[in-house]
Amino acid sequence: MSEFPDGLGGSLRGRLTREGATELYAIHGELDVAATELLPARLAEVGAEDGSDVVVDLAGVGFIDSRGLRVLIELQRTRPGLTFRAPSAAVTHVLEITGLTEHLRVEAPGS
User: Fold this and answer.
1) How far apart (Å, rounded) are the C-alpha atoms in residues 91 and 54?
2) Residue 73 lies in a domain
3) Which pLDDT score, from 0 to 100, does residue 111 have?
4) 8 A C-beta contact, residue 69 and residue 82
5) Does residue 1 carry a pLDDT above 60?
6) How far apart are alpha carbons 52 and 110 in whole angstroms?
7) Is there a domain that residue 26 lies in?
8) 20-78 pLDDT, tens per residue?
9) pLDDT bucket at 108, cuts 50 / 70 / 90
10) In terms of residue numbers, what domain contains 101?
């Protein structure tokens, strides 16, 4: 079994775990056009049954393009309580230069 069993399109893979009352969905790979449909669909299922808080761990994302940014924006818009955790250096750089760190709920590693 893969460490990240959910295929989300292209190279993007995901894994769901639980931290107390929080659902943690870690993604790994490239967040690009290939993942724009499957990732939101998968996250729509996460936390839906019991209303759990949902955190998306971005530490394993090595690349994000404009379509990937749009996915993050739409996820935050439709699920205001959603938190993005520990973005990789590549993702952090893109979030900073686009000004999205001011608009997305992002927490640092270990928060």
Assistant:
1) 19
2) yes
3) 60
4) no
5) no
6) 20
7) yes
8) 889 999 999 999 999 888 999 999 888 767 777 899 999 999 999 999 999 999 999 99
9) confident
10) 6-107
Report CA torsion sign: 20, 22, 23, 25.
negative
Instruction: Name the token pair of 97.
Output: 């230069």
Q: What is the pTM of this model?
A: 0.91
H or E element at residue 27 = strand 22-31
d(CA 65, CA 1): 29
CATH at 79: 3.30.750.24
The structure tokens listed for 43 are 């996250």
Average of per-residue pLDDT across 73-99? 94
Among candidate residues 15, 89, 105, 108, the one with its CA nearest the CA of residue 53:
105
Pairing of strands 6-7, 83-85: unpaired
Establish if 92 belongs to a structural domain: yes
For the chain, the domain total comes to 1
**Is 1 domain-assigned?**
no
